[in-house]
Specification:
The longest helix has 13 residues. The strands form two sheets. Strands 2-10-9-4-7-6 form a six-stranded mixed beta sheet. A four-stranded antiparallel beta sheet has the order 1-3-8-5, with no helix packed on it. It is mostly beta strands. 30% of the residues are buried.
């Protein structure tokens, strides 16, 4: 099947978004996450952003990546991560930085990823963290807002 010309860019964008997390979009009802970050920080202050990923499946799953919106990163930089990410890459079509982990989450268990971030630009910065689990672009998005003074 060939898509009409006006739909091709949208299909390509959807495919690239899916590939940012590793594949085709799928059901995500067997994991969830909580993102904990301070709402207000001082410019130059380093602060933790903790993402706790819960695996409700009966088998282990893999945290593939955390993809963080460029809009939030306009005022904040990521300094480090625990556990450390294996690689980081910018995904322009998605407007995110993708931090790859490939960490196993036990069946019925959870994993904490703590990013050390620094406020670098004054303002209020909003975006999403896409939590990608399972290798096939199975992701859920969570809001993130930080004001840097």
């Amino acid at each position: 099947m060939t898509l009409p010309s006006p739909l091709r860019p949208l299909a390509l964008a959807g495919l690239l978004l899916a590939l940012a997390c590793g594949g085709a979009l799928q059901d995500t009802d067997d994991f969830s996450a909580v993102v904990d970050a301070p709402a207000l920080v001082a410019k130059g202050q380093t602060f933790p952003v903790t993402v706790t990923v819960h695996n409700s499946a009966a088998e282990p799953q893999v945290l593939e990546s955390l993809d963080i919106a460029d809009e939030w990163l306009a005022g904040v930089t990521i300094q480090s991560s625990s556990p450390p990410y294996a690689e980081a890459m910018h995904v322009p079509i998605d407007g995110t930085w993708s931090y790859t982990y490939r960490e196993t989450i036990p069946a019925g268990g959870s994993i904490d990823v703590t990013l050390q971030a620094t406020g670098v630009q004054a303002g209020t910065f909003r975006g999403e963290v896409d939590v990608c689990v399972g290798g096939m672009a199975r992701f859920r998005s969570y809001p993130l807002t930080t004001t840097v003074e």
